[in-house]
Design a protein that fits this description.
Strand content: under 5%
Strand order of the largest sheet: 3-4-7-8
Bound molecules: (2R)-2-(alpha-D-glucopyranosyloxy)-3-hydroxypropanoic acid
Shape: globular
Radius of gyration: 21 Å
Order of helices and strands: HHEHHEHHHHHEHHHEHHEEEEHEHHEEHH
Length: about 500
């Protein structure tokens, strides 16, 4: 049996779907959840995390805290999984894509029916996708949430294809994924252009993925919170309250999601609508990837590259602040930029056609006092170290995360910043190693916060381990976007 077949066969026998408290780093206590690991390589331990989090058809971010399939987690996980099992990585993405709604949206959670309803909130009975989402074309046989997450998927599909183009072609992987990815981008560009300037808006903080970022404080302050007694936070069974969003945040998340659901998940009416730099940069990177997929399938891909370039121009036009040297969010409801520095505003660095002067400025901003990349900070803090709302432990209000670190690393490499990219890569690997693949870390001390054995931390560790050795093509081609028909590896 070859390696791919072994992995898939073993996965099918994995029976545990939900383990209440084995992988959570609570109350900042230093707790090792795996057997002593000195003798095992980082690669082997990362592979073990992905194996432990695999359910048979997809990978959970964390067995305890997040026991279902999450959209952007799955894309990052597939990017790492491709180095272990290209077949499993394809399956991961196919499972997610099969839960797509007829209007093109890819839901942010695909629920595992074997997991108890009270294991995670909001659960399927809150979203009621198959009934409340009927008009928007929610699937009937699988339960999902009704909001979305950042569109990393086409990028992931392209990178997974490149890991084993022969397997991909024999399974028709790209041919089956392409129409779904095209519909997904269409949904975002047509139904979500709420600002009318060509960019996609998010209608809930969970959609952007950085749930309690200070960027949302002002737009969220207009939202009346749902009463605390109307829901129960399952996250606090697993995570330390001081590391998580507050109850007030949750009240507002619940209000926004309830209103969206009760309006049949129709777009346009949300009180909260924000154009975010990272969400749109990932859409643009994925549009470039879609061009490469189209080309592999026999089309030219030219129109998609052109659209990606137009979107890059719109991103600069609407969200770049030259005086502050970074991208900001735009509050679509009052039309103003939100003057909060978040790691989101650095992530457009990954775009290949970003003007040179903007890329240079972003690198300076990242290395300056607000983010201290390569200086006093570990990795890349999620929020301005000098910002009033900075908190080194509270989720997306300061801690450093591995997916955003990976994106900045790719961006640095994309723009020829090899020394800084190498240093960030080393820091990401060392921190993943020292924290047992933590969900996020204190940006000054590197202390583990949130869940341990976290899916995308392990997956992106694997991806970084496989990026060695660097050659000259890496910095112009950080995402495998060469025009050689996908045979790069
Ligand atoms: C809500 C799964 C997800 C990530 C998000 C992260 C967190 C969920 C939560 O976990 O959000 O979607 O319950 O806090 O903020 O980025 O995708 O890992």
């Amino acid at each position: 049996m070859d390696r791919t077949a072994q992995l898939t066969a073993r996965a099918a026998t994995h029976s545990v779907v939900y383990e209440p408290d084995v992988t959570t780093h609570s109350l900042h206590a230093s707790r090792t959840v795996h057997a002593p690991h000195a003798a095992r390589t980082l690669h082997a331990r990362a592979a073990e995390v992905l194996e432990a989090n695999w359910t048979g058809t997809s990978t959970v971010p964390s067995r305890g805290l997040y026991p279902h399939q999450w959209s952007w987690d799955s894309a990052f996980i597939a990017i790492g999984l491709r180095h272990l099992s290209p077949l499993r990585a394809q399956t991961e993405l196919e499972t997610l894509l099969s839960a797509q709604w007829d209007d093109g949206r890819i839901p942010h959670i695909v629920f595992n029916p074997s997991v108890p309803l009270d294991a995670y909130f909001p659960s399927p009975d809150f979203w009621r996708s198959s009934t409340a989402g009927r008009a928007a074309g929610a699937p009937r046989t699988v339960q999902t949430s009704g909001i979305v997450q950042p569109p990393v998927h086409a990028l992931a599909v392209w990178l997974v294809h490149q890991a084993d183009p022969g397997l991909s072609r024999s399974r028709g992987f790209l041919a089956r994924a392409y129409p779904r990815l095209a519909a997904w981008h269409r949904y975002l560009l047509h139904r979500r252009d709420l600002g009318g300037g060509g960019l996609a808006s998010v209608v809930h903080p969970w959609e952007q993925g950085m749930d309690n970022s200070p960027c949302w404080d002002a737009p969220l302050s207009r939202v009346t919170p749902a009463p605390a007694r109307s829901f129960r936070r399952a996250d606090l069974d697993h995570g330390a309250a001081e590391d998580r969003p507050t109850d007030l945040d949750y009240g507002r998340y619940v209000r926004l999601a309830t209103d969206y659901r009760d309006g049949g998940y129709e777009d346009g009416a949300s009180e909260f609508a924000v154009e975010d730099p990272s969400f749109n940069a990932l859409l643009i990177a994925s549009e470039h990837a879609l061009a490469h997929i189209a080309r592999e399938l026999g089309a030219t891909g030219t129109a998609r590259h052109a659209r990606a370039e137009r979107l890059t121009a719109a991103l600069v036009e609407r969200l770049w602040d030259p005086a502050e040297g970074m991208f900001f969010c735009r509050d679509v409801r009052d039309g103003a930029l939100i003057p909060e520095r978040s790691v989101s505003g650095l992530i457009p660095l990954l775009l290949p056609t970003l003007p040179r002067d903007i890329a240079d400025t972003l690198v300076r901003t990242a290395r300056g006092p607000h983010f201290e990349l390569g200086g006093a900070a570990r990795l890349v803090p999620s929020y301005d170290l000098l910002g009033e709302a900075f908190d080194p432990h509270r989720y997306w209000r300061g801690p450093a995360w591995f997916n955003t670190g990976w994106l900045v690393e790719r961006g640095l490499r994309q723009h020829g910043e090899r020394t800084h990219a190498d240093a960030l890569r080393t820091a990401l690997l060392e921190t993943a190693d020292a924290t047992d693949f933590a969900e996020y870390v204190d940006p000054y001390t590197g202390e583990a916060c949130g869940a341990l054995g976290f899916g995308w931390t392990a997956a992106l560790t694997l991806d970084l381990l496989h990026q060695q050795p660097f050659d000259d093509s890496d910095f112009t081609n950080a995402f495998g976007m060469s025009d050689q028909g996908g045979e790069r590896r």
